Amino acid sequence: MTRTIAIANQKGGSGKTTTAINLGACLARLGKKTLLIDLDPQANSSISFLDLRTITRSTYDAITDSCALSDVILPAPVDNLFIAPARIGLAKLESRLVGELDAHFRLKDKIQALNGDFANIVIDCPPALGLLTVNALVAATHLLIPIQSSYFALEGTDDLLETIEKVRQRPNPALRILGVVITMHDKRTALARDIREQIQKVFGGKVFDTVIAKSVRLEESPAYKESIFTFAPGSSGATDYYSLCEEVIERVEARTA
């Protein structure tokens, strides 16, 4: 069975894309055929591995039924990792699908048509709670929420949790919150420690043990079209994301056993 992990937080700058590209790369490095679906019109996950000038079809084309999702998928420069890239045109999707009865199910249908060709699918959602993110939540088996270690970390969390509950009530009752990962954490500051405690009060056991430390290497790696595992394999960022990947696998397997 394909495990489909949506990575979502409507708050920008939460480390969502960094988590998507490095979790996807780590799953692939562990020998599992993995698909990274970019649903963010900014296309940062796509840019991290591909030259957008070479892309002729995107997730917009697949979701609007111009082609199959398999027609969009391209190999990444990482063994076992494949990308369904985004382009800026995705920003027009909501207006394009307004009034369509199956608007929230488009991505789910496209993924089902892949017939389990991938062991893992990671979906990078846009920083919004619109139609694209809802499509991801309807299609996903699991949800991972990155939260930046900052003063406004929990702002908007209630809206996200409300959206998740609405999706669970009808279109996808099987959706599970896999966990919350704290990103861009600077353990040297008292503020960061306070924020970590606040997040743990809200989410309890949902918070991953792994915390992603603030890292210049993590910020630099996409510019070189590499994941942290090839760009700086000895860095704290590589260690942190490998640890997160192990926790993700452990939690997924514990809930499907």
Walk me through the structure:
- There is one protein chain.
- The protein is an alpha/beta fold.
- The protein has one domain (about 5-255): P-loop containing nucleotide triphosphate hydrolases (Rossmann fold).
- The chain is about 40% helix and about 20% strand.
- An 8-stranded mixed β-sheet has the order 3-4-2-5-1-6-7-8, sandwiched between helices.
- α1 packs across α11 (about 235-255) and α5 runs parallel beside α6.
- The two termini are about 10 Å apart.
- About 45% of the residues are buried.
The sequence of SSEs as H and E is EHEHHEEHHEHEHEHEHHH
Could you say what the CATH topology is called? Rossmann fold
Number of helices, where a helix is a run of at least 4 consecutive DSSP H or I residues: 11
Q: List how many beta strands DSSP finds.
A: 8
What general form does the structure show? globular
Low confidence ranges: none
Radius of gyration, CA atoms, in whole angstroms: 17 Å
Summarize the structure in short:
With 257 residues, the protein is α/β, with parallel strands linked by helices. 39% of the residues lie in helices and 18% in strands.
Which key features would you list for this structure?
257 residues; alpha/beta; Rossmann fold; eight-stranded mixed sheet; 18% strand; globular
Could you outline the blueprint of secondary structure elements for this entry?
Blueprint: E1 3-7, H1 16-29, E2 34-38, H2 44-47, H3 59-63, E3 74-75, E4 81-84, H4 93-97, H5 106-112, E5 120-124, H6 131-139, E6 142-148, H7 157-169, E7 176-185, H8 190-203, E8 207-213, H9 216-220, H10 228-231, H11 236-256
Parallel strand pairs: 1-5, 1-6, 2-4, 2-5, 6-7, 7-8
Antiparallel strand pairs: 3-4
Helix pairs in contact: 1-11, 5-6
